[in-house]
Every structure is written in structure tokens, then in C-alpha cells.
Amino acid sequence: MNRLDPHNELQLARASALTRRHFLQRCNAGLGAVALNSLLGQSASAAEKPGAQPDYLRHYAPKAKQVIYLHMAGSPPQHDLWDYKPELVKNHLQDCPQEFIEGKTFAFIKGHPKLLGPVYDFKQHGQSGAWVSEMMPHLAQHTDEMCFVKSMHTDQFNHAPAQLLLHTGSSQFGGASMGAWVTYGLGSMNNNLPGYMVMVSGGKNPSGGKSLWGSSFLPSVYQGVQCRAKGDPILYVSNPEGMSRNIRRQSLDSLSQLNRLELESYQDPETLTRIEQYELAYRMQVAVPGVMDIKNESTRTLEQYGAKPGEASFANNCLLARRLVEQGVRFVQLFDWGWDIHGTTKLDDMENQFPKKCRETDQAISALLTDLRERGLLEDTLVVWGGEFGRTPMHEARGGSKFLGRDHHPDCFTTWMAGGGVKPGITYGATDELGYSVVKDPVHVHDFQATIQHLLGIDPHKHNFPYQGLNQRLIGPTASPKIIKDLIA
Of 486, 484, 402, whose CA–CA distance to 448 is shortest? Predict the structure, then answer.
């Protein structure tokens, strides 16, 4: 055979590729066939019974069917929202205890800092008596529905690694996101919409970028689909100019035939994923415009959320989140940028930026909880609120800044949940009298992830995907993550 002949080169390449793939397909482990049959099986199941849970994942009776995850990117200061500390009020701008800073490394604090008490007033609310800042007057009305976790802690004190750890289980790029893991396990309940949808507000993507809703080693059909605030809600959902829906259908049929020929030849499961993505995109042309158009909502509903059709806002995204779960989307994630309250300028301080972010989110989240409850959706929908880490009880004063703000703090922060099978009106865990360290019932990020999966009926220790010689899991490779059963109703 003439090695210089391009045709012969192509034959050799094909023979080599087929040899490798035949080995994977026909070896005792049957790796290629297993992966392909797994995808085919899930596809068939979804077609026959939308949202059906495979037997190998039906570990528990689920408390929740869907998730709305509200991530406040930059991490809100818990001392100024939920974790009220009278001793911190008494010691406002006094020297920080030496034991707090001895041997500790902070992102920006230098020297010996002053303690920083809450800048705004707190009051108790509801039968639970939960303390809530005056900056969240609407959400204060929901304390008897909320389950506060005040003992969260993480391993990371910089934004991107902490966000990646929280949402993908790994502080490094390359992990699959929580939403991808959930939809990989449970699928979507609506064949015409993705199982996992994402919306971003605040003008920027979070520090961890789009990896926070990526699928990584999981089939790409499970990655989050990001919706835009203006124009087509999803890029290319509309037909190109001059192409009718019938022509697009014929084009997809031809493309599908070509892809299936490739699938038969190479047995690559990602080819099947590509086919499914094209078909889903076609079905979304009809479903997405209607679901993402809030103009038909009542005036009362729009005013309740503070939503304005045609604008980009967190309020609009909260209303869209309700519409999406109403249509059977499994996992909806809202990222709101702008909560990095350092106090270096007016753009990131306690007296200007912090109140602005509270105004933008308080009413909308309150309306979301009310709307879900009134429509009978809250019982099956788990709503999660939080950031990637906490803030220090000390004043950062970077470079001598006089603007009030707090540094990053991984040792403790507050998250809350509502609906979806969690105990309402409770507080779990506690921090010390100055809000510096967890002193009761610590909850690591992996514990939190395990608990969310458990609420959805997934065994977090068994839910895995083989990749790079390891059964990858959202909660990491060790046995230490635990389900926090005291949070579950």
C-alpha cells in the first residue's frame, strides 16, 4: 500500500479507529456498548414516560421533584441579613480578638482589624422568631416557611474555586454541575424543554463562569441551557431568514440519518447526544417562546414580583423560574452578580451596593415563594438561596478605605431552603457570639449537596459516572459527606 496515497491514508485511519472502537465494544467489559446502551435506554425511557426515574436511581421516595437554586454571586454578608449577633453590635469597631487572626490568612485583611457590627437593624419574625435584617422586609414574612442553615462552611476563600466547589463538587475546573448531575439522574418532565435551565442577572457572569452549569464528563445533553434576557431567549431558537419550519425539519431528518450512520460505524455515545440535542432544539422552537414570554402574566403578578416585560432583571428571572418549573423543567438556576461587599468603593460597600442588591432581590424572591405556594408547586419544588462562602465579622478597611465592608470568610455562612420536603420555620446549626466560627452542627458544602440529592430521591453516594478511572460523584470520592436528616420534614 502506498503510504503517500491520501485515499490509503484515509483507509488506514478508518481501520485504526474501527479497531479501537471494536475492541471497546467487544471486550468483556463492553465499555462502548455499555455507555451507548445507557444513553439509548435513558432516551427510550424519556420518550415513553417523560421524567421517569431509572430503577438504579430510585433509592428513596423523593420529597422534591424540582429545584430552583438562587445563587447570590459574591456572597452576601450573613451578619447583615440572617445571623444576628448582639455581641457584635456591642463591640462594633472595637479591636478584633487576637485568637481570630492569629495564624489565619485572609483574602484582603491586613494587620489587626476592627470588628464590624450589622449596619442595619434586625427584628424577629413569625412563630419561629427568626431574626431578619430590615433590608429584607418581604422575605421576613416567610420565615415560617424557611429552613435556615447557619453552620455552612467551605474549603475555599476565593470566589471562582468556592463557586466551583459548591456547584460542581470540585474547586478546580472539570467537574460536572449539580444541575447536570440531577438531570442525568432524573431527566426532564417536559420533552419539549431542557431539564436544566440557567439565567444570569447583575450584569456579569459569576466568577466560576459557565463551568458552574456545565456537564463536563457527563453527556453534554445534560448541561444547563442559558437563557438570555433580551432577544431570542435561547440563541438560534428561531429559524434563519428564508428557512421555514418544514425545511428545518427536513434538514434535521437528513442530518439525523448521517449521524446515525456515524453512530453505527463508530459507536460513540456522544453522537446520540448530538442527535438528541438537535431534536430538542427543534421542539424548543414551539415551547420556549411561550414559556419565556411574561407579557401574558396578570398585572397583579408582574407587580408582585416587580417584573417588567422586555427588561433584564432578577425579578423577571424569578418569574421565569416559576414558569419553567410549572412546565416541568427539573432544575432552574439563577445567578445574581454583585454581592461582593468589600467596602473598597461605593460600588461594593455596605451603605450603597448592599441595599441596592437587597432591593433587587427581596421582593422578587418573596413573590416567588408566594406564587409557588398559591399554585401548589412549593411542596414539590425545593428553593435554595445562598452564596459561595461567608463574610468576616471584621471590617476589611483595605488600603485604609472608610467605606464599610467585609472580607471573604470560608469558616461559616448562612444558606436557607424552602419547600421541597425541608422542615419549615427552623434554624439548624449555630456560630459563636461574634459570628466567626461554627460552634454547633457544622454542614460542609458536600453535606449540603448530598442532602439536596437525597431530597430528590437520589442516593448521593451511589449516583456516579465512571471517568478517568474513578466513579465520579458530585460529593467527591470520600465517604465523609453526610445527609443532614434533621433538615428533612
Answer: 484
